[in-house]
């Protein structure tokens, strides 16, 4: 089945049965070193997250905020593929470069007025293909309206917290 | 140098020189298959992001929204380590389990009123150690106030977009 067939079939199925559109994604994390974290996700993959030596780690993997940027950049790239296919726009190449600024005084509690996360994000997308500039602008608007991880960065998400502890 | 020494030294340095606290993290992404994305991050690591067959991919890696959950879960785990050390709270074990709900009608453009990203997130943290419940509650409050990726999920981040294209 072509990607266009997959998209058309899925779009039709979800419009007929909105309950089929409800997906839950899952990830488990264990702190296995000073800052080393082993992650196992629902699709069966596992990988390591760590911090550099400056934060007490061994740089055994990308750190959490790099994975957050990677989630955004890869989601942008894949959403370009899906929506170019939906809109019939030829797309030969997609590259996404992202910078994210953090003021580390927030994380270390040096200044409680400084937020701990990203203060600003810059997303740079390079496309290649034979369509008009207007069509790529149309594609970019569609991607930014439908990219799941961009929505996460740009808006608030309701979060429930649950804490349990056992005496060692 | 112990982790506590690293934290104390860093906290002191950042309070003396706020400019030293300004960090920029970076990630580059290339769409190298139908939905396969190769990611290279600033700390020198690279990894693959992909979608399952239902979305035209080959499941060669976790997908973008799983990486987003992993960013949050690993950031929670590491922030528990750092803040337990700062606060002098014994911590033997940290496990973080996260579920995130997405209504896929948003991503596929079936219903423009449905947001494309997470509609809800559930974070479950399990701690082990010999301190009182009150101290672990104090730790949890400190972690949730200083965790960079939790801040990203819970709040809006300003995003600049830049698009360039080349004729193929």
Largest sheet of chain A: 3 strands, antiparallel
Quaternary organisation of the protein chains: homodimer
Sketch the topology of chain A as an H/E string, one letter per element: HEEEHEEHHE
**Helical residue percent band of chain A:** 25-40%
Number of DSSP strand runs of chain A: 6
Overall radius of gyration of chain A: 20 Å
Which protein chains make the most extensive interface, counting residues with beta carbons within 8 Å of the other chain's beta carbons?
A: A-B, 128 and 128 residues
End-to-end CA span of chain A = 53 Å
Strand content of chain A: 25-35%
Q: Which stretches of chain A of 5+ consecutive residues score pLDDT under 50?
A: none
As laid out across the biggest beta sheet of chain A, the strand order is 1-2-3
> Outline of chain A, from the CA principal axes?
globular
Count of runs of 4 or more consecutive helical residues of chain A: 4
Mean pLDDT rating of chain A: 97
Helices and strands of chain A: which structural class? alpha+beta
